[in-house]
Give the backbone structure.
Amino acid sequence: MGGSISSCRNRPVWTFSIDIDVPVSADSLWSIVTDLEALPTIVPSVISFERAKFEGLRDDDQGKCQLGTRFRETRVFNGRSVFLTKTVTSLNDDESDSRHLSFGIVFSDSKNGKTFNTENTSTLTVVPMTDDTSQLLLTISATSGGIQNLCADYCCRSRTQKTIEDSMEDEVKGYRREAIRRYKKALQKEIK
């Protein structure tokens, strides 16, 4: 796990990344990464998921993960429910190279009757290692908004950083668990 803090327009930008080896093919892992509806079963902190209707798409295309896909999720973060709106901002599913899926994220957290908005970017990258192993890399960049939130970031930086790192570790481990579960399920089907 690595974390760094820089600044952008007088606001701190936090960037964190973590990777994990996954004992399944890149194709199998990619199918899990792009299965957005399964997030509550994959990521332990996600407690709800709701896809936003994507204007201009036929109903049978609504469930696909594609550029512009938007959804809302609720996560438990640092003991509180946090409401996120995510939009797919970049999608590379070229099978010959590493694949990535990036989200623009805006989340609101009500605290003491005030709402703070924070803009984040989250990228999941799937890298093929061998025919039956891959690596998942999760990178998050966060820019805090609002002077109160900015002060909270500076006052509690070490605790906030640890919370983010723990959350990211839980997330990549969740993808790994789900990949193994689906692989075992497919093997059982083949045996029958």
